[in-house]
Amino acid sequence: MNLALRNLPAPDFPEIIDRAQLDRDLDAIVSAHSDRKQRDAAIKQRLKEELARGRETARLWLAENAHGRLCAQHISLQMDEVIRALHGYVLRHVHPARENAAASERLAVIAVGGYGRGLLAPGSDIDLLFLSPNDTTAWGHAVVEAMLYVLWDLGLKIGHSVRGLDECIRQSRADITIRTSVLEARAICGDMELADVLAVRFDKEIVQGTELEFVSAKLAERDERYRRTETSRYVVEPNVKEGKGGLRDLHTLFWIAKYVYRVREVNDLVAAGLYSRSELAMFLKAEDFLWAVRCHLHFVTGRAEDRLSFDLQPEIASRLGYQVHPGLSPVERFMKHYFLVAKNVGDLTAIVCAALEQRHAKKPAKLDRLLRPWKHPKPKQLETPDFMVAGDRLTVKDAEVFERDPVNLLRIFHIADRHDLALHPDASRLITRSLKLVDRRLREDREANRLFLEILTSHNAPETVLRRMNETGVLGRFIPEFGKVVGMMQFNMYHHYTVDEHLIRSVGVLAEMESGHLSEEHPLANSVLPEITSRTLLYVAVLMHDVAKGRPEDHSIAGARVMRKVGPRLGLSAADTETAAWLIENHLLMSNTAQSRDTSDSGTVQAFAAKVQTLERLKMLLVLTVADVKAVGPGVWTAWKGQLLRTLYWEAELVLAGGHSTANRSERVAAAKGATRAALPDWSDDEYEAYAGRHYPPYWLKVEPERRVAHARFLKQAAAAERWLATEFTTHAAHGVTEITVLAQDHPRLLAVIAGACAATGANIVDAYINTTTDGMALDSIFIDRAFADEEDERRRAARVAKTIEQALRGDVWLTDAMQKKAEQRHRRTRAFDVEPQVIVANEWSNRYTVIEVSGLDRPGLLYELTAGVARLNLNIASAHIVTFGEKAVDVFYVTDLTGSKITSLDRQEAIRKTLIEVLDTPTAKPAAVPVNA
Fold it and tell me: Per its UniProt record, what NCBIfam families does this chain match (predicted)?
């Protein structure tokens, strides 16, 4: 405990507080003010000025030297002096101690919790324990109250408790949180002997014999904290304090060391045998860096902000002095450093856990198996005498095992995978120290590459083993191209993890699909997986598909080049290497086509199939796409995206199998009409023929059978009611979307008004199908993100959106004001991003339409503004496809002029580009909201 350390020596700081002068100033204020209110106000003002001066000094000092731990210590020492000054003022002028007071009138002011460690961030809580011998006297309560009122009025967040000695011991025994707080206790002022008594009793009555209880509780707390925040330390908006690999993990390590090993200072960890000097240096560097980031966060935001969000990352990177590097921005370099530090914190945690196991203070862990419900029995004999099993963990026989045979650096992971064994931290430490052995000779060793491919393509849990290989540094050394993306983040809101974590998770998704665990979620991908001839090729492509991120060129093209270099070394044949390179170069093709192109357009499908060329590539590309998208992060994969991918796959499969000719399309139209007729037995033939004649041929190809039947009944009901403006909605829980169908008179501004109404109600459009009938009506299907899990809640919300659409189309509501409010509600995080606006006008992407692809920074109401811009250009929108990649919006419109022809005039194409670029460049665009009937 720190209670004996009453007066911590200050490092070589700039002057903190001249407390002697501060005491004189407070005494002078008392002498100058007879009025109590005026005196109290002046006292508070003087202390507030001292705090502000000290905080500003700390901020400037941190900016100059970037030592985060010393900054936190500076702020803590400053707070100590303010509390001592306040305590002295109260005892001298407010509630003086009586000369012949009872022994019970004793009070110690003790810092606990984080403040007890002697470290404070600018916005941290100030946790204080006011300790008395037994029950606190009236005098003691009066002193505490006087001090707290001043501290609160200074704007400080005070966490406090007032306890007697016995109560403090009793509550420490009953509550692990209080016990941890007292463990960190540090006396500031008051009765120091009383503080020493607490230290002795706490160690004797609480700590001794309860090590296992404490360690188990703190590790359980840590696991629950991970669950609340995010289990991965590689999320791209980490919590510096509570996140995995953050300061709280270092605190937990030190709590355990203090409790179990009786250490007082971090430097004592070496003497206790927990860390080597190099590992202690790693601890200190990690702590210093994380404190620097946390203190900067608090200074920048002016509050206790511990989440390193996108909008704050560039500012923190700038304050820490990071510079641009080819392919990496300053913020990406900063965040790569952050994640490497988080990885080091994980390594330090593993070392302490291993030491605790040896003391029997913690139960040993096993290699986590996500895919396999059974466990191998503990092996009696491993494949090589170089390794052994100790405490259900795989470890080395001696310290020369890797020097004797560097292939063992791969073999140990291979054995761990085969026998379901976690690595012993001693083995992990030796691996990390032996990384220099992973050289060119080992990379080209045939046996080493065989072992690596078997690890990668294991039917057990390759994700788990690959992640451990990555954390020890072996993966990045064995495949240097992978090593370049370790800890690398992509500064966007789409990707949730670092590049290396995303790639390893992608392999995990592939393994889950292959095991059959995701058959309901990904039925098509699961069904084609067994048909793929080379699963090794597929696993390699999945692991390497983003390996060229962070370069100044297109990562897909650069990644294909890397694959052509690495493939032969891994043992792939020339043909498999080329196929893997093709998959990497085109790994975004299927996702982009499915989400942003009209797959009912024959030109779209023909162009996609021409790039794919074979059914085998199509199958592999589908599986790679699913693994890639699903591993981006929570909530990125949706059932709607799965449906889009399946539709594209089926259309492309037809082409690659030799179908999709003009005659075939005519036959498919006829078949679709026949199937719809059969589903409407209550209709007469004449009635159905008249209805079918209202639709152009593309309608029958791009609308699913169930929706065609629903459309038929919807139009019939509208005609019977003599309604020429009508809406209906259908919730698709399985796909995560809600469909709103709109019947209205066709008009160039129709989609703009619908989009505006959706945006005004907060509904996010993810796709739109525009169908124009032969009698001048529009039958549009708008798909919006589902907002509620409960079906009734979602139906009520859909009804509100549909009603707003009808009101907007009738001209009963004016959208401009509502849309302006939405546009002004700019998401705080998106301001940190700079997405270059781009507009592409292409006639070669479709046989019938001009395709306009618009990309730029997303914002509320953007689709409304874009569709209004298209309407002002007198263009008809045949279909629209809306995709959002985090902060980036990619909207694609299939259009014609008012005569139904493509836009061939170069001048008009340029006018389209200019108009839509202006929309993207204007953050608060105000397109005219003209009703359709205007």
Answer: PRK05092.1, UTase_glnD
In CATH terms, is domain 19-208 a member of 3.40.640.10? no
What CA–CA distance (Å, rounded) separates 114 from 248?
10
Beta-bridged to residue 873, according to DSSP, are: none
Q: What's the residue count for the chain?
A: 934
C-beta separation of 345 from 471 below 8 A: no
Nearest-angstrom CA–CA distance, 470 and 464:
10
647 by Cβ neighbours in 10 Å (0-12 / 13-18 / 19+) ranks as: middle
CA angle 474, 475, 476 (to 5 degrees): 95
What is the greatest pairwise CA distance in the chain? 111
Distance CA 543, CA 508 (A): 10
Q: How far is CA 43 from CA 24, 36, 49, 50, 57, in A?
A: 12, 10, 10, 11, 21
pLDDT (tens digit, 9 = 90+) per residue, 183-234? 999 999 999 999 999 999 999 999 998 988 998 888 888 888 877 765 566 6
In one letter, which amino acid is 284?
L
Strand partners, 767: 783, 881
Helix, strand, coil percent values for the chain (each to nearest 5): 55, 10, 30
Main-chain dihedrals φ then ψ at residue 430, nearest 5 degrees: -70, -35
- For residue 483, is it left (φ>0), alpha (ψ between -120 and 50) or beta? alpha
Torsion of CA 283, 289, 294, 299, to 10 degrees: 150
The predicted-structure confidence for 617-646, as pLDDT tens digits, reads as follows 999 999 999 999 999 877 678 777 887 898
pLDDT at 1 over 80: no
User: Which H or E run contains 131?
Assistant: strand 126-132
C-alpha torsion angle, residues 448, 449, 450, 453 (rounded to 10): 130
CB 378 within 8 A of CB 366: no
Contact between 86 and 17 (Cβ < 8 Å): no
Q: Indicate the residue type of 434.
A: S
Alpha helices in 190-276 (DSSP H): 192-201, 211-228, 247-261, 268-271
**Domains in the chain: boundaries:** 19-208, 234-246+254-358, 724-921
Residue 394 has phi, psi (to 5 degrees) of -85, 130
Interatomic CA distance for residues 821 and 760, integer angstroms: 9
- In three-state secondary structure terms, 781 is strand
What is the Cβ-side half-sphere exposure of residue 45, based on CA atoms within 13 angstroms? 7
Ranges of beta strands (E only) in 16-92 are: none
Q: What's the 3-state SS for 649-694?
A: HHHHHHHHCCCCCHHHHHHHHHHHHHHHHHCCCCCCHHHHHHHHCC
Buried b (16+ CB within 10 A) or exposed e, 3-26: beeeeeeeeeeeebbeeeebeebb
Count CB atoms within 10 A of the CB of residue 100.
5
